[in-house]
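If you are new to this repository, start here. Below is one unmodified record pulled from the training split, so you can see the exact layout before writing a loader.
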Amino acid sequence: MKNLRSHITGYSTYAIILVFLLVLTALSVVVTGYHLGAFSVGIALLIASVKVATVISYFMHLRSENMFLKVAVSGVFILFGLVIIITFFDYLFR
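And here is the target side for that same chain:
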């Protein structure tokens, strides 16, 4: 199936996304320096999720794909999130 929209992205957009990803990486390193207890893993996963969504959207051009592929990828991430949540609840109630 031919994609009717072009997904050509300029270098400046890629540079902005790179800086954003580097800032998020620095933020995740800073967060590991603080003792936040059980929230440390949750914050690290939240930052990693934002980074993954950014990489998939811009570098893998998901934002220019059709709706079916967007829903399928979103479903995979929702399923992964549910598995992580169930794992944390299992660990919490042991």
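Two things worth knowing about this chain: The chain has a mean pLDDT of 86. The radius of gyration is 17 Å.
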